[in-house]
Amino acid sequence: MKSFQSDPFKGTFGSLENLADKISDVLSCPVTIEDQNHRLLAYSTHEDGTDPARIATIIGRRVPEKVVNSLWKDGVIPRLQESDDPVRVGTIQNVGLGDRVAISIRKNNEVLGYIWVLEVEKQLTTDDMQLLKLAAASAKSQLLQMQIGTKKKEENRQELFWKMLTGNLPQEEHILEKLHELNILPVLPATVFILQLEEEITPAIEKDILYLAAVNQKINVLLSAADANQMLLLASPVGKEPPLELAKSFVESFFTHMKERFSVSDIKAAYGSLVSSFSNVEKSYKEASSVLAVQEKLGGETLALNGYHELGIYQFLDTIYEKQQRQNYRNEMIRTLQAYDAQHKTELYHTLETYLTLDENLNKASEVLHIHMNTLLYRLKRISELTNIDMKSPHQKIMIYLDFKMNRLFKQERL
C-alpha cells in the first residue's frame, strides 16, 4: 500500500455517520456503510448524486434482496468476503445499481461490514483505492466498538428464547419486558422455524444461516438459537402477502441459497402455526417439530410440506393412533395383505399404499412401482378379491390410507 503523509481517517469520528461523511469528502463520492448482513449503518448526507439501489437501501435501512442476489450471482460478494482489497462493481441496470467500488471491513478473516462508494461523477483512482483501505481500517475500529457486549447480549437472547420454547416463561407481560430489555421489537404474529441440516451446525454455518435470514426480506428474525444440527428461529413474516405464504417463500429461498452460496444441501425445514402472543411460542415449536417428524418418517411424499397448516390430516394421526391403541384396533383387511405378501412373496401391501398415496392415479402409481399398467390393474383386482375392499367407497379408502401412514409413522407392525 502506498504510504500517505497523513491518514485522513485516523482518529475518532464519534459516529459512523461522521466517518461516512469524511470518506465522501475525501473521495468526492456518495458513501454507504453496511454491516455483514447488508443492513445500513450509515451513509453520507451531503451529496446530490445517487442511484435507485442506494435510495432503496436508505429508505429500507438495508440493501434490497434483489440487489444482494444480483451481487451474489455476479460474484461480487464472494470476492469481497475473500479479500481485503477494493472490488469494482459495474452497473446492474435491472436492479438500479450504478458503478461503484466496495471494500469489506474485516477483522482477520471475519467480515464485519462493507463500505460502498458510488462513482457518480468520477472514477476512483489507484490512490483513492488505497485511501479506501485506510477508511476500512478506521471503520473496523468503530464496528468493533459497537460489538462490545454483543456476545453477552446474544447469550441473554438465547436464554430467553429457550425459556419461551420450553414453556418456562408463560407470562406474556414478563416476555415483553425481557424483549424490551434486549432491545427486540415485539412484532406479532410470529412463528418458529426449524432448519435441520445433516451435520452439526458450527458457528460458521450458524453465521451463514443468520445471514440468509437477515438478507431475505420475507421474515424478520426476532430470536435464534443453534441446537446440534438444528437452527431455531422465531420470526415474524414481513410483507403484503399472506403471512404463511411469506413463511413458505422464505423456506424455498433458504433451500436455494444455502446450496448455491454455501454448498449446503440435504436440508429439512419446518415451521409451526402463527401465534398472536409470545406465550404460545412453545406451541409453534412443538408443531414445527411434528412437521419434521412426519417428513423423516414418511420421506419424499411429505418433504414439500413445511408448514404445520400444510399437514392436513397428518396433524391428527397421533390422536387417532392413541385411540386405536386404547381400543386394541386392528385393520383386518391390511393384515390380510401382509399375511398374503409374506406367504406368496408378493407386494400387494406396498402396491395399495402407493396407489392410495398417489390419489389413485394409475399412471403415476405404475411409474413409481416400476410395473406395467396391466400388472397394476391385476394387483388391484387381486387386492379386492382377498380383502373385499370396495375401491369405490371413500370411507374405506380413507381409513385404509390413514392406517398405512400410522403404521409407518409409529413403526408398529400392528395391522
What do these coordinates show?
This protein is of the alpha+beta class. The mean pLDDT is 91. The protein has 16 helices and 9 strands. The radius of gyration is 28 Å and the shape is elongated. The strands form 2 sheets. Strands 2-1-5-4-3 form a 5-stranded antiparallel β-sheet, with helices on both faces. Strands 7-8-6-9 form a 4-stranded antiparallel β-sheet, with helices on both faces. A hairpin with a 2-residue loop joins strand 4 (100-107) and strand 5. The longest helix has 22 residues, at 126-147.
Question: How are the SSEs placed, and which strands pair?
Answer:
Elements: H1 16-27, E1 31-35, E2 40-43, H2 52-60, H3 65-73, H4 76-82, E3 87-89, E4 100-107, E5 110-118, H5 126-147, H6 150-165, H7 172-181, E6 191-196, H8 203-215, E7 219-227, E8 230-237, H9 243-262, E9 268-271, H10 281-298, H11 317-326, H12 332-344, H13 348-357, H14 362-369, H15 373-387, H16 394-409
Antiparallel strand pairs: 1-2, 1-5, 3-4, 4-5, 6-8, 6-9, 7-8
